[in-house]
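Our preliminary data section would be incomplete without showing what the modeling component actually yields. Below, a chain of 625 amino acids is followed by its predicted structure, encoded as tokens that our downstream tools consume directly.
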Amino acid sequence: GGVVDALASAARGAGATTDVLEWILLHDEPTAYEFLAQLDGPREVRETAAGVFGKELDHGVPAGDAYCALLPSDNRHRLGEHYTPWTVVRRIADRVHPGEVTADPACGDGRFLVELLRRGHDPEAMWGGDVNPLAVIMARWEVWNACNRPKPAPRVAVSWIDFLIGDADNRFADWAPQRPTGVPQPTHFVGNPPWVLWRNLGATYRDAIARVYGTTPLNQAKGWGARVSAGQTDLAYLFLHEAIERVAPGGRVSFVMPRSLLKSPVGASVVRSGKTSRGRSFRYSRVLDYAQAPVFELVRTDTIVAFVEADVAQVFPVPWETIHDPDKQGDESPAWPSDSEDPASPWTDGHEAPRLVLRSDVRRSALVARGGVNTGGGNGIFHVDVLATTGGIATVRNRPSRGFPERIVEAPIEAEYLHPLLRGKDVAKWRAVPNGFIVVPHRRDDPRKPIEEARLAAQAPLMLGYLRTFQKELSSRKELARWGGAWYSLFRIGFYTVSCWRVVWPCSAGHRMRAAVLAADDRAIPDQSVVLVPFDNAERAYFLCALLNSAIVGSAIASGAGFDASPNLVKRIILPAWDPDSHAHQAISAIGAHACMHEGGSQTLLDQRVSELYQSKPIAASASA
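Predicted structure:
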């Protein structure tokens, strides 16, 4: 309410007529204004907000920037409200042709529309909308200013809309903005759609999105993946998909997007594939990569600008421009799918990025990687330091994580239920050294299942007593509510976790892959920051470890995965399957075994042997011409 008051005051002071003022304040959309009225806070809060926001406007600060300064950063993150820097807005506006019908379906404070108006584009050949009615008011204010404050309302349609569902599903709220009506079909969608992960959406709105899109190919997660991976699907992907579907024949889309759109193995493959869920063709014509020149404050995800053309087939390579200075042109290199057989696979980019293509006589592996043990938010309880051990009894002290739990407890525990704890930072190239311990109240014959409480009371009363000290905290874990089990259960634990040969690497090792091997008799348990691949023999384990630590594979991982080296890595990177009859494979395995045992070896020899399995050459710098 305070922001609306400040904008109304500013508009009156700027000479807005009654009709213009009513247009700015959404009186022509009474449902939207009534919805906004429900959000009014206490009077003193409104007055404070109006004062702060009004002063920013008086100093010429764009309404969106003033609004972002007022809104707590956590709220902005959950809502995906990070307004686009003007340098990026201008780069996109440079590619809008005169005569195009341009639309921004998540317009925020309208800065893309404003920039186009400043460049002389036709006001009647553009429109914008936003699901946040406050953003619509700010956009109308900015558009009115950009049009030199005309007496009648500007001829720019800026409306309260929900671009994704609108009137397709009105059950998601008492107040449901519609899809845009009465506006021309865009030939060019521009903008910065909200970046909100599926798991961060409000439950009601998430259910509404699922009802519209859950049965389409855009929803790829099934079973376990639906629970674990769907949380990484971004609302921005749906905006891009819908813009491609709705743009005029031969039209274009220019969106600011998370870099994960083209790099992540989870959630985005349909929007990379070159075909929409309804079969419409599209191609990426150029990508601007801002990973080396971050443009958003308080946003951890790297930024790209994706330029897309509808109704044409995808052609590779795609020009990939790495921006080092937001105000200057960047360095161009070619980009390709990391899997030459799958156009929807994550992209790799760079002048020297290798395309991994196996020789015709080498089979591709079908490896399955796993995540390490997940405590479901209980790291500060299950992760412990051992202070002393006497006669099979260890004295332990828990390690609070990010202030949870608030208590530090020292207690005796039966040592047989403690395992060395391996975290991502404990894994180096060829070597993994655990640091600390983890309490494991699970069965040895079937690690998937926690030991029954009655058996724990009889066999491990000390451990049970320690866990009961934190029973309230452990019982309130979100993962427990999601997966079920005993109040002291661990998650993502199974036969693959221990008592087998395991190749391990950190989840965040994409830029600097480093893998090691845990032997079958090694009791170390990887935590959730570690990826592991289980094997039943040492030769296969050392073979995979050597492949991952080779230069050619490591370079492909770094250029295609960013920081991500999650379990999907073994699916999106082409790796040769182990062949016990191959002398070349045996030689690579032997190199890996020697390097693991002696913490290093001949990298040159390893790289030569691994490269011989591929018919791969670096992508030529001129390939993007």
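The first strand starts at residue 102 and ends at 104. The longest helix spans residues 43-58. Preliminary results of this kind motivate Aim 1 of the renewal.
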